[in-house]
Amino acid sequence: MKVLVTGAGGFLGRELVAQAVAAGHDVTALVRSEPVAGSQTFDPSVRLVRGDLRARGDWTEVLGHVDVIVHAAAAASGDRALQLSNTVVATERLLDALGDTPLARFVHVSTLSVYDFHALPVGGCLDERAPLESRPRERDAYTEAKLVQERLVRTWCEARGVPCVIARPGAIVGPGKVWGFGAAFTAGRFGFVIAPRARFRMISLSNCADAIIRAVDIDAGGVEVVNLVDDDPPTNAEFFRTCVGAGAPDRVLLPVPWWLVGTVGRAVRMVSTGLLDGQLRTPELLDHRRQEARWKPLTYPNQRAHRLLGAPPDRSRRPFVSRSAVTAGGGDRTRRRRTGVSGACHRARCAASWHTLRM
Length: 359
Known about the structure:
359 residues, alpha/beta, Rossmann fold, seven-stranded parallel β-sheet, three-stranded mixed β-sheet, 10 helices, 12 strands, disordered C terminus
């Protein structure tokens, strides 16, 4: 297949290009700027195209020469204006430039953040049938922008009969992106882990990219939605301890139960709604809807991903963090805390590279 990857210069985009090449596809990588000297470069077989999706340019010329688009371009952070520009406007311009171009498939990279975590009970199941966030403005600009982006892609594909896969990955973990090593916040030698026994809805960078590229070749029509989470993900406490063992800053875990965090969040929300007309802007730690989206204890089945993307569940290994991911994220590999496991077991866990959803 001739595959165009947008956002190819990003954290996930670079891995998508590598996985697409490994799968034997003819790959075109769309990046905003030329790779910085000394940074990771693409395989020589990759056609590199420079362009900004928000403005027409030479990049539009490649659209008529590809079979599949893997759309990973989006803003990972920033205020509402930045999210609107880099996620929504960029997608609108891409779809406008495509017009009625025939495609074999459109693979869109979304996020689990589009779901309505408030609507699910503690311990509930977040799968593809879960409701989408109904009040995104009460969450954050990222959720709002990704919901609009999904809607744009779905509408375009349905109107033209283009098969579409919407992939919704959880927290993607890899070199340089380790989610605070599992701690909500730190103070001195202590790392405060909220909902320590709740599952961390992670997926490794390589597993995520592998699953998305597999969606290029599936035999399915219409619009398919699939959540991407590693098999049997670790608890928040397990993730924290494993990061420490793999070289993250040597901190002592202090567990913070979900019921306490949720109670504080609800109290703050009541004050904001009752006395301040809902205008109080609070950090994630105190904002109840954002608390739920980050730490609410839920289950994350991935059977649909295995069925749709063609791989049986692999529960032979637990997904533990690699040293490369931790050290690239600012960890100190020379500082470790005793975890009560044997040296051999400890090293084996730290060396694992999360291939539990390898497809």
